[in-house]
């Protein structure tokens, strides 16, 4: 399969930043951008997860249900497992 590419416009400061970073990492600018986007998506996911967890903890009824469910799972982790 042929990789499809396109061109995007960035200011010179951004271009130089990507170029320096890719040189430091000894990889292509494309790979540097791909990894940066992946890390940014991961950061957003973790941030949203933390927000959802904080909201869950603020709701005492739902938090209690969460604790109870965790306790149930904790009890089942070693069911039938021999050390």
Which structural class matches the secondary elements? mainly alpha
Tell me the Rg in angstroms.
23 Å
Largest sheet: none
What is the count of structural domains? 1
Given the structure, what is the number of helices?
3
**Overall outline:** elongated
pLDDT averaged over residues: 90
- Share of helix among residues? over 70%
Order of helices and strands: HHH
- Uncertain regions: pLDDT < 50 for 5+ in a row? none
- Distance N to C terminus: 49 Å
Q: How many beta-strand elements?
A: 0
Strand-residue proportion: under 5%
Structure description:
This protein has 83 residues and is an all-alpha fold. The protein has one domain. The chain is 73% helix and 0% strand. It has three helices and no strands. Helix 1 (12-25) packs across helix 2 (29-58). It is elongated. The relative contact order is 0.05.
């Amino acid at each position: 399969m042929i990789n499809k590419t396109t061109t995007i416009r960035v200011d010179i400061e951004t271009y130089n930043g990507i170029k320096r970073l890719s040189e430091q990492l000894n990889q292509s600018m494309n790979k540097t951008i791909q990894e940066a986007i992946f890390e940014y998506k991961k950061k957003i996911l973790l941030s949203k997860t933390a927000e959802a967890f904080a909201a869950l903890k603020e709701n005492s009824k739902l938090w209690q249900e969460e604790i109870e469910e965790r306790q149930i799972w904790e009890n089942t982790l070693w069911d039938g497992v021999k050390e």
